[in-house]
Design a protein that fits this description.
The chain is of the alpha/beta class. It has eight helices and five strands. The structure holds adenosine-5'-triphosphate and magnesium ion. The site of adenosine-5'-triphosphate (ATP) has 15 residues, from helix 1, helix 6 and helix 8.
Length: about 220
Amino acid sequence: MNGKGAFITFEGIDGSGKTTQLELLYKELLSRKVDVIKTREPGGTIPGERIRNLLSDKQFNMEPVTELLLFFSSRVQLIEELIKPALKTGKTVLCDRFHDATVAYQSYGRGLSMDMVTTLEKAFVLPVKPDRTFLLDCPYEVAKNRMSARNYKTRIETMDRAFFDRVRQGYLNIAKSEPDRIVVVDATGTIEDVHRYIKDDFFSWAPPHLSPLPLGEREE
Ligand SMILES: Nc1ncnc2c1ncn2[C@@H]1O[C@H](COP(=O)(O)OP(=O)(O)OP(=O)(O)O)[C@@H](O)[C@H]1O
Ligand SMILES: [Mg+2]
């Protein structure tokens, strides 16, 4: 546990429901008066959001290593500018993707060396590590249908099914290697079902000061 707050991340393939579920847990924690903030990767800071724009610009092809280093650049900025100061003052931080995404996408997905990714993590990310991670797991078809229902353009259009299958399996491998931190969530259910599962896990895991009863249910 990092200080009094906690560092919570949401992971999963594009369209698995990370942002939706992060927002719901965020609202739940706010309603219980937990000192919580939310952020995202890449992004979350001004330089980080500019890096995010660069990464999502499909006008040019980027070398996989260029992409990798941009993700780390955004991460370092987020850690120093936001995550470390927030945890130091007891805030709980909810983050939409973090380092696991780099392992899943750049290493398992793109085939970059795991050693290189681990070396960069040791140099620039550790000892910052999520206290709990919700891995929203669903098949490619489910995520793709959700994305097309929302009709927005993302990398899902430019990458094939095999890529996302590798990323999904990569995430599951990471989860298997760190079962105490990573909760694999079946993301195929309804938004409400998935939220209930995450909420129940969070409140059975979290220390009491991070899981007060909702205001209406308190005795005070
Ligand atoms: N459990 C669910 N059932 C049905 N639709 C869902 C569910 N969860 C999310 N959605 C919808 O699917 C779409 C993608 O969800 P969301 O944006 O939360 O995914 P994401 O993992 O954050 O995607 P990205 O990686 O692109 O940011 C949204 O339109 C959302 O409303
Ligand atoms: Mg999202």
